[in-house]
Every structure is written in C-alpha cells, then in structure tokens.
Design a protein that fits this description.
Layout lengths: L1 E3 L5 H17 L4 E6 L14 E4 L3 H10 L10 E5 L4 E5 L5 E5 L2 H14 L4 E3 L7 E2 L1
Length: about 130
Amino acid sequence: MTCVTGPLSVAQLLDEVPEIVKLLESSGIDRLLVEYGWGCKLEPGQLWQDIEIPLPELAAFIEASIQQGIYSPGQADLVVQDRDRTFECLFCHESDIHLETEDMSMIEHVNKRWMDKGYKGFKVAAASEDWEPI
C-alpha cells in the first residue's frame, strides 16, 4: 500500500524524519539505504546510488546533505528504504512524502499521524488504482 501526504512545508517535511525513525525502530529495522534523486545537486552518476546508513543516523545524514547543498527538502527527491526493500519513504521534490509498504500497521500508524497533523493526502492499495483520501 502507498500513502502520500498533501503538500508540506520544509519544517513539516523535516519533522517527519524522527517519526519515520521511531516507526522503523519499532519494526526492528536498524539499517537503511538512502538514495539521492531528482533535484539533488550531484553528478548524474551519483544519483540513485544506495548509501547504507544506520537508522539512528538518518536525521544527521539529511541535515548534512542540506548543509552540503546536496539536498533541498521539498525541491529534490530523497529515497529511504530498508535493506529488504519492504519499506520505502520518498521525501519528494513536490513537497510531499510518499510511504510504501505492505505492513498495514505501519500504514495505519502513518495515516493516523498525518490526519492528526492535518497533512491530508491519499492512500492506495497495491492491487487497486483507486486513490482515496486519508
């Protein structure tokens, strides 16, 4: 299943990083693959390459990427996955967040948080093409 927020501010995008870390920790995930994507200030050959990091270092990795001028939240893509690729979170260049997993408890947790925060957005089941509001 995939869920996507509505448009978020830079602060809102960055506020979700520690929440994603907590969610993944509770699922037993301890290492991540991060990819710089569309809009990141790197040579084309450096984009879409897996960079493995420990889960607790995700926020520091993103902050360093911002400070180095590589990644701009809401203006470039940053993809975060677990090593088994059962979870993917895209911090999108369109100022939203896409979360994809078959773990329904994760989806429900994220949907509730995003609704409580007023982020709006949509979700779709993998077998369906019908997007519905969160």
